Amino acid sequence: MTNSEQTAEKIHYICQTYIETKAGRDGQVGLKIAKQFEYSTASEAKNRAEREALSEDCSGADAYMVSEDPKSGEVGTPNFLIRLGNVPEFDDF
Q1: Whether 76 contacts 67, CB under 8 Å
Q2: Average pLDDT for residues 48-70, to the nearest whole number?
Q3: How many separate domains does the chain show?
Q4: Which domain holds residue 71?
């Protein structure tokens, strides 16, 4: 393995689905993560999000990519490929 391969950032393509939670004391319905899948390409993650969003038990789905620094393990801010249905605000992510 070359030195450049050891320092290259790793890209993760994620499909994440959400379901609604029951209303709390304040009467507001929330969202929670239902499923999470990792893929090797952006199109695979996006296609899965589109299929999952059609499911009756799915409130919403995101497909996004994040980069990971292999040395530190730090993960960057998500870059959304597609957001479908009822999904959390970016600040809640």
Answers
A1: yes
A2: 96
A3: 1
A4: 3-92
Length of the chain: 93
Beta bridge partners of 25: none
In the chain, count H helices and then E strands.
Answer: 2, 4
Q: Is the pTM of this model over 0.85?
A: no
Phi-psi group of 27: left, alpha or beta (phi > 0 → left; psi -120 to 50 → alpha; rest → beta):
left
DSSP at 47:
H
Contacts of 17 (CB under 8 A, 6+ apart): 33, 34, 35, 36, 49, 52, 53, 55, 58, 60, 61, 62
* List of residues 6+ apart from 84 with CB closer than 8 A: 49, 50, 53, 60, 61, 62
So what's the pLDDT on residue 22?
82
Q: Tens of pLDDT along 4-27?
A: 555 689 999 999 999 998 877 777
